[in-house]
Amino acid sequence: MPGSRVPDWFTEEPVVFSKRRNSELKGIICFGVLSFKNVPENQREGLQLEDVQGKILNLTSEVFRTTFRLLGAPRRNEEHIFLRRFGGRTPLLFELKDRYSLHLQRRNPPRIEGMEVNNCRILLVFCGDDDYEGDEESLDETQYSVSQKLAKFFNFADV
Questions:
Q1: pLDDT tens column, 45-73
Q2: Which of 50, 98, 99, 122 is at 20 to 30 A from 72, Cα to Cα?
Q3: Is residue 5 part of a domain?
Q4: Does residue 6 form part of some domain?
Q5: 101 or 68: which leads in pLDDT
């Protein structure tokens, strides 16, 4: 969707995973800005975007890599945000171990010349981060669940 703002409560990448003693990692949300200013309009129809990659690295080497499949490219040259959530049954979560780092980047070499990946951020979602049952409007914003934070962000985003 059109936009360039990224929530400030996401962590700038790379993110180094630290296992929590009493809280299991339940999901990963990747958020960033894509720019299509240099992609010719005649190449956008039916385009499947597979130029955003997530990589997991240990201290010495790459452990895992995945490509985010995003369908469609905007018809206009304005920046667009992407959001991708990975749940508990995905290899990205299985491969992330204590002290491993998670990076987001553009595929090299890219499949789409001219597309840029900017301002990537990551949110690690642990058990309890998204489990609030009740009216969150009565809570302080710092206590909102991940889903409520995202809903508020998109409701008020300048798109």
A1: 666 677 788 889 998 899 999 888 776 66
A2: 122
A3: no
A4: no
A5: 101
Residue 100 has pLDDT above 90, yes or no: yes
Is residue 107 within 8 Å of 53, Cβ to Cβ? yes
* CB distance 123 to 11 below 8 Å: yes
CATH number at residue 152: 2.60.120
Distance CA 126, CA 21 (A): 11
Within 8 A by CB and 6+ apart from 99, the residues are 16, 17, 18, 58, 59
User: What domain range is 125 assigned to?
Assistant: 11-156
Count of the separate structural domains present in the chain: 1
Q: What is the mean pLDDT of residues 12-33?
A: 88
Name the helix (H) or strand (E) containing 97.
none
